[in-house]
Write a structure and sequence with these properties.
binds NADP nicotinamide-adenine-dinucleotide phosphate, seven-stranded parallel β-sheet, alpha/beta
Length: 264
């Protein structure tokens, strides 16, 4: 029960990693605010799973591209709980396109949802957070590696990792830790969508090049996130934890491409 009596807000917790993290924290005692954009059925399903586990949660819809909606989300948290212990900025979306074809609206929408919403969210969260509070943002290996159609989101993730350092510096004296979790390929709706694009190879061909030879499950990422949110991570702030099955440490030639398995 590492999160007993803690109030946690996880953006984008109707589906995928956010949903798994909501369940993980709730099972360990947190009271969870499930946030979503418009998929109410999925949010209600997350709530039902949390309630079935005997934990407390409620849901709130807000389009995080809209600063007024972000304000309303945190006002609802303040009304209901009067505080916030754990803020996880997890919701994300983008247009997967070649960098040369990104229009101003693609750039603006991706920046607003992924970067501006985090900055505004931390500002609101910090106002509600006691000492011992935690901020965590979900990043991806696109922040440090380049691959087709990911430029818009990858550069936003790189910006998030820089924001983590600045917020950690400013909030450290208040005993609020701020970190990022940098995930590799995770089996969720969004990775399925990405690898279903006509130009993309099958996901299995790509994961064959990763040391772990498979995508992460959302539950594996959620467990690592829970560690960063827990008391065990009390002295970790301003960090980026790689949870990528070794994806970012390998380079061509990949082991799977060797003509002889031993490589000798
Ligand atoms: N999946 C991967 O392979 C992978 C790899 C590395 C990093 N990550 C990162 O991990 C995080 C979670 O990824 P995921 O794959 O679990 O996500 P997902 O399954 O695509 O879920 C996205 C969530 O974000 C919400 N959302 C989308 N647009 C929104 C908006 N404008 N305003 C508010 N909420 C919005 C969705 O709400 P609705 O349900 O209402 O649409 C949903 O809850 C993201 O930050 C992602 O970049 C994922």
């Amino acid at each position: 029960m590492r999160f007993k009596d803690k109030v946690a807000l996880i953006t984008g917790s109707s589906r995928g990693i956010g949903r798994e993290l909501a369940l993980t924290l709730a099972r360990e005692g947190a009271s969870v605010v499930v946030h979503y954009r418009n998929n109410q059925a999925a949010a209600e399903e997350t709530l039902a799973a949390i309630h079935a586990a005997g934990s407390e949660a409620w849901a709130f819809a807000a389009d995080l591209e809209d600063p007024a909606a972000i304000r309303e989300l945190f006002a609802a948290v303040a009304d209901r709980h009067g505080r916030l212990d754990l803020f996880v900025s997890n919701a994300a979306a983008t247009a997967f396109r070649s960098a040369l074809t990104l229009g101003p609206h693609h750039l603006e929408r991706t920046f607003n949802l992924n970067v501006r919403a985090f900055v505004l969210g931390v500002q609101h969260a910090a106002a509600l957070m006691p000492a011992g509070g935690r901020v965590l943002v979900m990043s991806s290996y696109g922040s440090i590696r380049a691959f087709p159609t990911y430029a818009n989101l990858g550069t936003a993730k790189a910006a998030l990792e820089a924001w983590v350092r600045f917020f950690a510096e400013e909030l450290g004296p208040r005993d609020i830790n701020v970190n990022a979790l940098n995930a590799g390929i995770v089996a969720t709706d969004s990775s399925a969508y990405f690898y279903n694009q006509p130009a993309m190879p099958p996901m299995d061909d790509v994961t064959a090049r990763i040391p772990k030879r498979r995508a992460a499950t959302a539950a594996e990422v959620a467990r690592a996130a829970a560690f960063l949110l827990s008391e065990d991570a009390s002295y970790i702030t301003g960090s980026v934890l790689m949870v990528d099955g070794g994806l970012s440490v390998v380079a061509p030639p990949f082991r799977v491409e060797l003509r002889e398995p031993s490589g000798s």
